[in-house]
TrEMBL record:
GO cellular component terms listed in the entry, alphabetical order: extracellular region
Name this polypeptide is given: Peroxidase
Keyword list, A-Z: Calcium, Disulfide bond, Glycoprotein, Heme, Hydrogen peroxide, Iron, Metal-binding, Oxidoreductase, Peroxidase, Secreted, Signal
Co-factor requirement: Ca(2+); heme b
Species per Swiss-Prot/TrEMBL record: Cucumis melo var. makuwa
């Protein structure tokens, strides 16, 4: 693979901007290097997806998706993180085929792992508008992929071009959602999962940076707070001050807590700056900093926000092209995203 310029990033102590950043120091390492691939290196996605796929059949599709996502975002800005998460859940299982949107007994959408997913109404709203303009033309898979991009931009993240031409899957199996990471996996398991999707270690660390926004249910971290590895004690890798904060915040397992304790409503690289301070909410977040395969990337991104933004666009573009259906004999173009077309 052709790589871009080698970046030598000087690591310095972060400036305290809130209670959560006080009295924490990095590990004393001064340098970290990271090779960053250029976006153009991932623009070749075969002969089937293309930027002009709907140019004649449904002109203006991007504008409609943008307008609809913005309408929902203006009413509730937390929908941005939800759309990113919905897209990720979709692509991890069977590729980016909108199988997560199918709603019937035994589908991915009905699985325990999907219980807290949101954003389905947004996709349905976009689909209904597009069906009026271009019936039976724009796939739900393309809509979900583009909606995740629009959500990223609205929350302050980078823009990337989304090629179109995905078809919608016709199968959705609840048990397959066991593939979706739940925040407790070790780094080896995560690397293997990402490799199975055609993604690499850099993509793993960068896409984890989506945790710069959004929330998690307190139930996910209960064991870290009170009974880590059945010891009856909290996870020793958590900063004591952060631990006390989480215990106050998480009175009930059904409560929610921000994934990024310092700037939860801003798309930035604070997620990475939190990890050396032992302020990763999920155990898999914390592991990114302690594992030698991912730690150098975390350190680099923590001190180079522009590199994070660039690479997030690259990795999201790659994610959106995972195992897509493009052949006319694969899948279908659903007229309603929550159910398969009638025979």
């Amino acid at each position: 693979m052709k790589w871009g310029v080698l970046l030598v990033l000087i690591l310095a102590s972060a400036t305290a901007v809130s209670w959560a950043e006080k009295d924490f120091e990095d590990d004393g390492e001064e340098y970290s290097s990271l090779e960053i691939p250029q976006l153009k290196e991932f623009s070749a996605f075969g002969d089937f997806l293309s930027y002009g796929f709907y140019q004649k059949s449904c002109p203006g599709v991007d504008g409609i998706i943008h307008r609809k996502v913005k309408q929902w975002f203006d009413k509730d800005n937390t929908i941005a993180a939800s759309l990113l998460r919905l897209h990720f859940h979709d692509c991890v299982v069977r590729g980016c085929d909108a199988s997560i949107l199918l709603d019937y007994e035994g589908s991915e959408r009905r699985a325990p792992a999907s219980k807290t997913l949101r954003g389905f109404e947004v996709i349905d709203d976009i689909k209904a508008e597009l069906e009026k303009k271009c019936p039976k033309t724009v796939s739900c898979a393309d809509i979900l992929t583009a909606a995740a991009r629009e959500a990223t931009v609205l929350i302050g993240g980078p823009y990337w071009m989304v090629p179109y031409g995905r078809r919608d899957g016709v199968d959705s199996i609840a048990k397959e959602t066991e593939l979706v990471p739940m925040g407790i996996e070790d780094i080896t398991s995560l690397i293997e999962l990402y490799q199975s999707l055609g993604l690499n270690v850099l993509d793993l660390v960068v896409l984890s940076g989506a945790h710069t926004i959004g929330r998690a249910t307190c139930g996910v971290i209960q064991e870290r707070l009170y009974n880590y590895s059945a010891t009856g004690k909290p996870d020793p890798s958590l900063n004591p001050k952060y631990l006390n904060f989480l215990r106050r915040k998480c009175r009930w397992a059904t409560d929610y807590v921000d994934l990024d304790a310092t700037t939860p409503n801003k798309f930035d690289n604070a997620y990475y700056s939190n990890l050396p301070k032992k302020m990763g909410l999920l155990s898999s977040d914390s592991a990114l900093y302690t594992d030698s395969r991912t730690s150098p990337i975390v350190k680099a991104l923590a001190y180079q926000p522009s590199i994070f933004r660039h690479q997030f666009a690259v990795s999201m573009a790659k994610l959106g092209n995972v195992q897509v259906l493009t052949d006319l004999f694969e899948g279908e173009i659903r007229t309603k995203c929550s159910c398969r077309n009638s025979p």
